[in-house]
Amino acid sequence: MPPFIVYFNQGQSEAAQIGLSFAEIWALEGGTTPSIGLFKAVREATPQGTPIMVMIRPRVGDFFYTDAELQVMREDVRIFKAAGADGVVIGILQKDGRIDVTRTKILAAEAAPLQVCFHRAVDMSSQDILSAHLDVSSIPHVTRMLTSGQAPTATTPAALPSLRMLLRTASRMPSSAKVLVGSGINANTVGPLLAELLPCGLREIHLSGGEWVPSEMEFRREGMSMGVGGEADWAIWRTSEEKVREVREVVDRVWSEFAESQENK
């Protein structure tokens, strides 16, 4: 079976028709908690049987949260759990940058028995990737960990040594969180990434598959901004069915070649 494609969904569900293992929903600005209205719309439009994961992140910025923010996150978990989400995506760090195991346990327990993914807060951790993965794996109910190998993107040469080491180590741990590799993945980069990491045990990848689409607004007041600023104020982020399909095709081809090579050994 080819690696799963776990994909960010900001409201466009067309790409979810292309054999995805999961759809993940988040609000665009920095990857924050989406509205319940967006969740319900995606739930209705996504093919039956496709699990939907929901980002739980109350704000942009760092991953050290106040007690009040933690309570907001707990309530968001309860709401999406009751609404039918299949899992949540969370991540909390301590002030010193270490994985906050205690607080993450609180959210993971609230989410149970849903799936729980620890997101790329791990890439901002002060711990090395193996130590961070060990802490994440110690948290009950956490099923996977998303990482770029603590590099800006998973597809840069600097990320590969960490990802190779992490995948090989995780494959020998009977109760470890699955390693979900993401950041910078597209049709041009996914082939070389799989070629490097499939032999190490990679089985899940994560991508946005999106692009900025020009706004249809005709009137644009000069000097005013109500969003991210600049020309991006007059554009809308949309998941591209074509981009996701292109990645799917490369994944299927590379996986088939890899599986055949394993059978011939």
TrEMBL record:
<protein>
    <recommendedName>
        <fullName>Copper homeostasis protein cutC homolog</fullName>
    </recommendedName>
</protein>
<dbReference type="InterPro" id="IPR005627">
    <property type="entry name" value="CutC-like"/>
</dbReference>
<comment type="similarity">
    <text>Belongs to the CutC family.</text>
</comment>
<dbReference type="Pfam" id="PF03932">
    <property type="entry name" value="CutC"/>
</dbReference>
<dbReference type="InterPro" id="IPR036822">
    <property type="entry name" value="CutC-like_dom_sf"/>
</dbReference>
<dbReference type="GO" id="GO:0005507">
    <property type="term" value="F:copper ion binding"/>
</dbReference>
